[in-house]
Amino acid sequence: MSTTAALPMDRFATSTGRVVIAAIVFVVCLIMLKLVTTTGMQDLLGYTQKTQARVPTFLVRMVFLLAAIAAAFFFVTGLSYYKRNKVAVAPWLFLSVGLVLFMIYVIVPIFQSISYSFTRWDGLYDFNGVWTGEWVGFHNYKVLFQDPNFYTSLWNNLLWLVLFMLAVPIGLFIALFLNQTVTGIRIYKSLFFFPFVISQVVVGLIFTWAYNPEFGLLSEVWSWFFCETKTNIVGNLTRVCSPEPPSILGDSTYATYGIIAAGLWPQIAYCMILYLTGLNNISSDQIEAGRLDGAKGWKMLRHVILPQLKPATFIAIVVTVIGALRSFDMIATMTQGGPFGSTNVLAYYMYDQAVGEGVGRYGYGSAIATILFLIMLVYISYFLWRMYQDEVEAR
Asked: What is the pLDDT, as a whole number, of residue 305?
């Protein structure tokens, strides 16, 4: 009696049932996302105004979005093509989730903000959730390029960019100083790194108190050289200074420099850590070869150490430039753009015009944000090009 052996199931075959169910769920989620986006949840949840349904609508939208992503994941992993090319496709599959969320919550808002820059809008909707803006074309940009506060903010951004670069060489020399094997060096490294783990708001408050001309650290140091204690007419001890301690944050000439000094404190710590990491990866063979050739001191640093620290230097410059261009926390904490708008930068001026101090010029603020984005786009494009070039050379 002959029997026919059952053919083994092809492990690369498409899982038909799984793919069909995932496709149905995906389509249903897309339809529901469309319905929720267009109609909202006002009538379904019984709200009298559309604005009251915004948070529930957002939560429902997130549920359907996550369900659609999960359905797409099961759909793709059930296909025969994926099973045969799993090694090549799997990384892109996992990246796709982050890319979708990045597209929705970063890329789309960027273009939405650019579109708002061509409108006159106070950032509010009416009671029924209808947009109340007005299309004005390039009017916001015409006003912007005639606004002296914009040029003050632009100049301050340039000042931040130039002076913030001091963090790179200072961080390098501190790292070289701390890159030693002596007792207690880890404690010193922790103390130098401590400013970076502090919130920017806390750093701003610390320096605001330090700059205070009445009771701050600067006032105390000033009193050592220019002040003396005298007895007034009622017999009380009074501090008399000649000249009086400077009010750094109250003087438009020095306020920006004072804020930049506060921002440099944590930024130097970050650059120091980058260089310490780079110093740990330096080839000891090249160091020994340099010593045999008579290199020491500045020659050793310039010709042997710095070339090997090129990746750390590149990253340090990148994060420092980006930090300078998007400076906001320090200004908001220490001066709120004052005195008389002299410490404004583009990021804070954008916030101040759009939602700060009740101005409500959302379209104008979006125009400022667009200019800042274009400035950063030039640098980010150069950064990405350099990364690509390094990858090509590494191959």
From this structure: 83
Q: In this predicted structure, what is the pLDDT of residue 39?
A: 62
pTM (2 d.p.): 0.79
Q: Which residues contact 128 (CB under 8 A, 6 or more apart)?
A: 49, 50
**pLDDT score recorded for residue 42:** 59
Query: What is the C-alpha separation between 150 and 348, in angstroms, rounded?
Result: 11
Please state, in angstroms and as integers, the Cα–Cα distance from residue 260 to each residue in 124, 156, 245, 331, following that order: 34, 10, 20, 9
Average pLDDT, consecutive stretches of 10 residues, N- to C-terminus, the chain (395 residues): 49 85 92 75 61 74 88 89 86 85 88 92 77 89 93 93 92 87 79 85 91 86 80 72 84 91 92 89 79 76 83 88 88 89 91 79 91 88 81 73
Report the interhelical angle of 310-325 vs 167-178 (nearest 10°): 140
Would you list the domain boundaries of the chain? 16-135, 147-212+259-360, 214-247
Which CATH code is given to the segment(s) 147-212+259-360?
1.10.3720.10
For residue 290, the model assigns a pLDDT of 77
Structure tokens at 255: 């306020």
